[in-house]
UniProtKB/TrEMBL annotation:
Sequence ranges of Basic and acidic residues compositional bias: 622-641
Organism of provenance: Thalassiosira oceanica
Keywords: ATP-binding, Nucleotide-binding
Lineage: Eukaryota, Sar, Stramenopiles, Ochrophyta, Bacillariophyta
Residue runs in coiled coils: none
Protein's UniProt name: 6-phosphofructo-2-kinase domain-containing protein
Amino acid sequence: MSGSDQPGSGGEKPATDSYYAKGSAELATESALTLLKIQHRLRLTKRSDRLVIVLVGLPGRGKSFVARKLQNFLTWRGTECKVFNVGKYRREVAIGSCDSNFFDSKNEAAIEARQKAASLAMEDMLRWLDNNEGSGTATPSSGALRKAKDRIGIFDATNSTKSRRNWILEQCTCRVKRAGKPIGVVFVESICDDKDLLRANYLTKVNNSPDYDGMTSEEALADIEERCRKYEETYETLDEDSQSYIKIFNLSSKILLNHIYGRMAKSIVPALMAWNIGTRPVFICRAGMTMNDNERSMLNLGMSRSENLGEHGRTFRDKLFNFMKDECLGFMSRRRKAAFSPDMNTGTSISGTMNRGFGSSSDLAAFLKDEDSDEETSILNSEHVEEEYIGCDGVTPLPFPCYIMSSTMPRARQTVEWEDLPYDVHMLSNLNPLDKGDFTGRELEDIGEEHPDWYTQLVSDPFYTRFPGGECYGDLTSRLESVVVDIEQQVGPVLVVSHVSVLQVMVAYFRDTPVENCTSIALPMNTVLKFTPAKGGSWQESQHCLMPSTHGSQSKLCQLSDMHPPDHTCDTPMMQSPNGHGPMVKLEMSKKFSNSPPSALARGLTPPPIWGDHRVISVSDHHAQSENADADRGLSRRGATEGRNTPAMTCRDEVTIRDSGIVS
Ligand SMILES: Nc1ncnc2c1ncn2[C@@H]1O[C@H](COP(=O)(O)OP(=O)(O)OP(=O)(O)O)[C@@H](O)[C@H]1O
Ligand SMILES: O=P(O)(O)OC[C@H]1O[C@](O)(CO)[C@@H](O)[C@@H]1O
C-alpha cells in the first residue's frame, strides 16, 4: 500500500460506501479533549483491591436484602466480603427505646447516638478492610494460584443525607488518614414508592426485626410508617455527578448508573439487575448415567466425554420428567392461587395490583397462563387447571413450564430429551465438566502414581490446583458467574443438568457456604436438589432421590460439607474441611491402588480419590455407617416428622437440608 493509499493520509478520499457497515477506517487519534476524558476514566478506575459498597434508602426498601445477596455473590466469586449493619450498632448504643421519635431529625440526643453507631460501624469496617489476616496469600504449594483476595465492605444503613454520605467518603478516601490504603466507594440506592409493596415490606420487618419486639403488629406498623415519614423529611437522593452510584428503582424496573467503571463495581451490576423477590424453584441434578457406566466400573475403563445415556440413565430421564411435571405444575398452581386470593396482611391480589406499575391484568393473566382472569373463582376452586405452555417450535403444547439449562455433553442434553417435546434447552459449555487437561479420561489413582508431586498438591489444595493444560475448581466460578446470574433472573421454574464439579461450585452458591470447600460437597446420582428462595435472600434446600443407584450402595443424602458419599460424587480427593467441621471419611482403596508401590497414598495422602465421572471405588462399612450417623445428626427429616424415622432413604424421598429463615 503506497503512502497516499493509507486511510487518513490526505491522499485519495477513502471509499465511503462501507462506512455504515464497518465505520471509519481512519486510525484513532487523541485530541486534548479525548485525553481529558480518558484521564477522567482512569481516575475513576484506580486500581484498588478494597471497595466499600454503601447502601442508601428509606427503611424497608430492601437494603439489607441487597447487602446479603451481594455478600453471598461476592464471597462465592472469591472476594472477602462483610456486611456492617449500622442498625445493629444503634441497638447497642441507644439508651432506651428506638421508636419513631428516635429517628426525628430534631431529636439531638438521638442524632448523636445515631452518629455514634455509624462511627463505630465505620471504624470496624475500616479496621477489617485494612487487616490482611485471613486473606488468601500466594503459597508455593498451591502453585501460586491462590492469590490475596479482594475485600469488600458493605455499609448498611439508610445513609439518607448528603452530609452523611460525604462523611463516609471522607472516612474512606481521606488522602491523609488513608494514605497508602486506597479504597473505592460505590453507593447503591434502593428506591421504591409502590404502596402495596412497601406495606408488605414493612410487615416483613415488623415480624422479624428486634426493633418491634413487644409491640402489636398494628403498633409496629404505625411506628415503622412514622419512622419513614421522619426520614423522608430530610431524605436526599443520590445525584452528585462526581460520585460512583447505582440507583435501583422499584425492584430493578429501572437502573441508573453513574461512574461505574471500576473492575469490581461494574461486575455487580448484572447481579443487581437479576435479583428479584419472587419465588420459583431451582432444580439441579447430574446428567444420567451413560451406557457403559456399569461395564466400565467392572472392567476398570476410563470414560469418554461423548457417551450417550445408558438404560439406567434413560430411566432417570423419564423419572425426572415426571418429577419436574409434578413440581412445576404444583408451583404454578400455588402461584396462581396466591395471586388471585387477597393477601391476608396487605389485602392485595392481582385485581388490587393491576395498572399500578405492575402491568395490566392481561399481562399478569398471560404470565400466569390464565387468559380468563375474570374467572378467578373457578381457578381458585379447581384443583387442577389445564395449562398450555408452548414449546420452542411455537406450536407444540408443553406439559409444564420450565427454563432448562444443560451442559453440551450428550449425556446431559439427553437427560432432558423428553419424547420429542420441544423444550428450549439452553446448552452451555459453561456447564461442562471440569477440564482435566492432559489427565482427561484418566483415573486419579493412576495419575497419583505417575505424578506424585502434582497429586500431593491436589490433595492439599483441591480448589486451586489446576490440571495440567486444564482447569481447577477456582476457574469454574468465573465460567459459572453468568449462569448463576441467569438463574437469579428467572421468574419461573429452572432446571440445570450438569456434572459433579460444576454443580459442587453451584451448590456452594445456593448454600452460601465457602466455595473453597465445595470439593467435598456430595452430589448423589439420580437425585435432584431443589432450591427455593427465602424472603431474606437465602435459599431453602431439599433433596429428592428419584431412583436408587446401580452401584450396590444406595445413594444416600448427606450433609455436603461433611460427607464423602459412597457413590462417585466428587471430582477431587476428599479432605477435612478447613473449618474443621465434619469427619474425614475413610474409603476403602481400590485393589489396584492398594497394591501399588509407595506413592502419594503411601505417604499418607488419604483418603484415596473418588473422581466424578469415573470408576466407582467401593466404600467401607465404616464410611456407610458414619454417613448414616451424620445424616441423622445433620438433617431435619421430613419423613421423620411423619413417623418414618428410618435413616436409610427410599427413592423419591425428600429431605430438607437447610431452612434459612429471614435474617434482618
Ligand atoms: N429492590 C427492592 N425494592 C423494594 N423492596 C425490596 C427490594 N429488595 C428487597 N425488597 C424487600 O424489602 C423488604 C425489606 O427488606 P430489608 O429489611 O432489606 O429493608 P431495609 O431497606 O434494609 O430496611 P431497614 O432500613 O428498615 O433496615 C424485604 O421483604 C425484601 O423482600
Ligand atoms: O444512621 P442511619 O443512616 O439513619 O441508618 C441506620 C439505621 O438504618 C436502619 O437500618 C433503618 O431503619 C436502622 O435500623 C438503623 O438504625
